[in-house]
Structures are given as structure tokens and as C-alpha cells.
């Protein structure tokens, strides 16, 4: 309801964040590459992302955005001068589902949050996808929510919306029969 960042910061200041979402504490100080994430560590990126949630955002979008990079700390590796987070989407989906179950979320919410976290980087390769692969990607149930998560994620980092806009354009240009053939 427009106070996601303030609520998260309050949980942190009172020490409750470690009780409710201890995985988030590991995001603090987990540095990212400045070319993609000039805002700093994973924790700050996540706070910036959830700060953009508009009133009326679905609980699954809010949770998906909160947890989309939850596995970056355990997946972080230094390869020469480069920091990588290989596998963080897959591992993050597993972690997000565990967190949702711990928080007693419904199965439908848990599954959708897992989907959002696991797919949150898939749009990056959309411009290079074969037509049939792109159509399969765009016809997934929950694609609008996923694309909104990717938009907020990009705005919280380097602001590059080109791949999000590519997917939106493709959705607008393709007919329903092209996306979902009989």
C-alpha cells in the first residue's frame, strides 16, 4: 500500500527483519557490478524496487519483487574482476517458495512467486529468441505481472527498459491467435 520500503526499513531497525526474513539480511553488503547496478548492494536494490510498488499492486508482485534477488548472496562469485550470480533465479525461486510456505502463504501465491522469481531475467534474451520461443514466453500465465516485475527491477538498477519494451511491443503486435495458436 505504498509503504513497502518504509515497512522493510522499520523491520530492519527493530531487529524483526532477522526474525521474519533472515535471508534479506544477507543481501546487505552483497555488492553487485556497478554497470548494471549503480545503486549498490542487493539490499539497497531490493528496497529501491519495492519502493516503486504502486497502491493496489498484487501481493504476488510485491512478494516476487521483494524476493527476486534473494539468492544473490549464496550465488555470488568473483571471476577475475567480474562479480557473477549464476543460478540465482533458479535457486531464488526455491528459496522464495520456502519463505512463502514459512509465512503460510497459499499454494497459489507460493507457486506464482516462485514463477516470478525463476523467470525474472528471462526477458533479457527475448530479442534473440526464435519466434516460437518468444510466443511461448509471452503466453505464460502471469506474463503481465512478470513484465511489471522486470520493469520495476530495471528502474531500481540501471534504468534500461529496452528489453521490457521489446516484450511489451511484441505483445501488442502479435494477435491472440499468433501467441496462442489453436
Overview of the structural elements:
The protein is built from twelve helices and two strands. The chain is mainly alpha-helical and 182 residues long. The protein has a two-stranded antiparallel sheet. Strand 1 and strand 2 form a beta hairpin. Helix 5 (59-67) crosses helix 8 and helix 7 runs antiparallel to helix 8. The radius of gyration is 17 Å and the shape is globular. The termini are far apart.
H/E topology pattern: HHHHHHEEHHHHHH
Q: If you average the pLDDT, what whole number results?
A: 94
How many DSSP helices? 12
Structural class category: mainly alpha
Strand composition percent: under 5%
Task: Please provide a brief summary of the model.
By secondary structure, this protein is mainly alpha-helical. It contains twelve helices and two strands; from the N terminus they run ααααααββαααααα.
Strand-helix topology:
Layout: H1 4-13, H2 17-20, H3 22-25, H4 42-51, H5 59-67, H6 72-75, E1 77-79, E2 82-84, H7 88-102, H8 107-119, H9 131-138, H10 143-155, H11 162-173, H12 176-179
Antiparallel strand pairs: 1-2
Helix pairs in contact: 1-4, 4-5, 4-10, 5-8, 5-10, 7-8
